Structures are given as structure tokens and as C-alpha cells.
Amino acid sequence: MLIDTHCHIQFKAFYDDVEDVISRCHEKDMILNLVGTQAETSKKAVEWAEKYDWMYATVGLHPIQEYKTYVEEEADTFITRGEQFDYDYYKKLALHQKTIAIGETGLDRFHIPKNIDPEIVMTKQKETFLQHARLAREVNKPMSIHIRDAHEDMMPLLSQVKENSGVIHCYTGNWEYAQEYLKAGFFLGFTGVITYPPKKTDPKPQEWLNEVVEKVPLDRMVVETDSPYLAPHVVRGQRNEPWRVEEVVKRIASVRVLSMEELEAQLEKNSHALFPNMI
Ligand SMILES: [Zn+2]
């Protein structure tokens, strides 16, 4: 069974045709984890998970939503909220039986607003991240962690969240950082980024990521799309949809010389180990 462990089909990129997207996923007999990034999209994730038995929710405040800033991605442009993390609001959502994880939370140096000192922003992101960690421990659910251009910032925090389980979602770092996350007990989530060829101008990051895909223990990886973002190479630049997670599976299967069936079964097992509340 295909499981997209991280997607955002409750986002506005899907407003016009979400029913079609849902039926394309349902035809493939999938399980989806809908991840919230602020108050409204977290609440929506829970509402959808209530409506469809094959959908689950993850609730939290994304680090880039803490300040108002303009974001431009291949599939979407938007202005973030400038939202404070309301512990009690998220706790209510976190306690819902269809909520399987807390996030996405984490650290992001890529989308820092231009008019604010980056170190002030990072300090706030770290505080909010640790509040998510506290919530995850309180409700006994794993974390979904976002890290962009901020592995060095995350390293000292790992010892503080060691007793938490969870996933480093959309892992794109090198094997050294990967080993630190694995040692701290986290899974690594892979997206369509692993299907991209190395950039001619700067091939190193993709080569490092390929090394991670080759070396990560088979029982510590999960797959995701991060839809509407990060469409796999064959449709790069288009809006991504959860069923395209099969391109990610295909890529790993070829690197690890496994059949699709073998790998899918392993990934299903891993997803259940990562999210104990997912039935
Ligand atoms: Zn995401």
C-alpha cells in the first residue's frame, strides 16, 4: 500500500479540484497524512481526517509562519501569517484520535523576513520548536520536523528532543547530518527531490543526498510528496499530487535494487512504526 506520509491537499493550490485529486489517490488505495502549517490548515487537516478513514492529520505551526513573509515556490506563492504558537489550541487538535503527529515544526533559514535580524528569528523558531517537542511528549505522538538551511542550528537541539520520536521530513541534507538524526531516533522522509538530477552548476548537494538514499537503513525511511510542492522530476514544476509518491518509491527501489512490492511493504511497515496511531 502506498502511504504519502506528508502532504498538504488542504492548501489553496487544490481548492478547484480537490475531489478529483482525492479520487485519484483513492483509486490507488492510499493512506495520506495531511500536514498543517498554521492554525487554519491544521484544523482543516483534522476535519478531513474525520471525513475520510484513509486520511490522518498532523498539526503544528511551520517556522516560516511565525513572521509575515512572502514565499515563492514552484507550485505556489503566498504570504505567511505571522502567527504565535497557541499551545492550548494545538493541544486540542493534537489530542484528536486521527492526529498522528505534531508538526510541521522546525527551523528555516531560507525564508527569513528581510527586515528582521536573522538571529532573533532563529531564537524564536527554536523556542517554538521546543514547545512542539513538549506538546508531542505530552500527547505521546511523534514529531514531523522541517529543516531548511538549518542543520547546524538543529544539532544542539537534538539532545533536548532525544526522547521524542518522529521524522525529518523532506530530508535533503548529507550523510553526516543524516547519521545524527538517525542516532537521535528519527526517521528520514524522502520526497521527489531524490528524483532530481544533480545541478550542472552545483552537483554536490544532489550527490550527498544520493549517498543518503544509498546508505540509510531500510527500516528508517519513509516516503512523501509534500504536495503541492516538489513534484518529481518527470513532472517537475507542476503541482504535485500524493499518488505521485510512487515516483519516489521507484527511485529508492532502483538505488537499493529492490522490487517495488518489497519496498512498498517495507515502507508501509516503517510508516506504522513511525506513526503508532495510524491504523
Ligand atoms: Zn510540508
Low-confidence stretches: none
Helix and strand content put the structural class at: alpha/beta
CATH architecture: Alpha-Beta Barrel
Which hetero compounds are present in the coordinates?
zinc ion
State mean pLDDT (0 to 100 scale): 95
Shape: globular
Distance between the amino and carboxyl termini: 13 Å
Q: How would you explain this protein's 3D organization?
A:
The protein has 279 residues and is of the alpha/beta class. It has one domain: Metal-dependent hydrolases (TIM Barrel). The protein has helices at 18-27, 39-51, 87-94, 118-139, 151-158, 175-183, 204-215, 245-256, 260-274; strands spanning 3-7, 31-35, 55-59, 70-73, 76-79, 99-108, 143-148, 166-168, 186-190, 221-223. Helix 3 (87-94) packs parallel to helix 4 (118-139). It is globular. The site of zinc ion has 5 residues, from loops.
List the helices and strands and how they pair.
Elements: E1 3-7, H1 18-27, E2 31-35, H2 39-51, E3 55-59, E4 70-73, E5 76-79, H3 87-94, E6 99-108, H4 118-139, E7 143-148, H5 151-158, E8 166-168, H6 175-183, E9 186-190, H7 204-215, E10 221-223, H8 245-256, H9 260-274
Parallel strand pairs: 1-2, 2-3, 3-6, 6-7, 7-8, 8-9, 9-10
Antiparallel strand pairs: 4-5
Helix pairs in contact: 3-4
Bound molecules: zinc ion.
